[in-house]
Design brief:
Radius of gyration: 14 Å
CATH architecture: Alpha Horseshoe
CATH topology: Serine Threonine Protein Phosphatase 5, Tetratricopeptide repeat
Largest sheet: none
Strand content: under 5%
Shape: elongated
Number of domains: 1
Helix content: over 70%
CATH class: Mainly Alpha
Distance between the termini: 32 Å
Number of strands: 0
């Protein structure tokens, strides 16, 4: 019998909301605000595939990856085997 864990459900719900909000902000051409949402998802789950892809695509689309890459690659190297 599996045990009900409301904490993990809340985190999953928060991630879903943040991904949706980030996508909505992208649709409104608010890339910086969208990146903040994707960063918040990654703070909850550092290897969340959808957040990583959306963040990378947003960086690529707005050209901010050159500015942010050094600050981001360090934490990623520590979380990805």
């Amino acid at each position: 019998m599996s045990r009900f864990d409301p904490g993990s459900l809340l985190v999953a719900a928060r991630i879903t909301v943040l991904l949706g909000k980030g996508q909505s902000l992208l649709n409104l051409d608010q890339a910086e605000e969208a990146l903040a949402c994707f960063d918040e998802v990654l703070a909850l789950d550092a290897s969340h595939p959808e957040a990583l892809v959306k963040k990378g695509a947003t960086w690529n689309g707005c050209g901010s990856w050159r500015r942010r890459w050094p600050a981001t690659i360090g934490p990623l190297r520590r979380t990805v085997p």
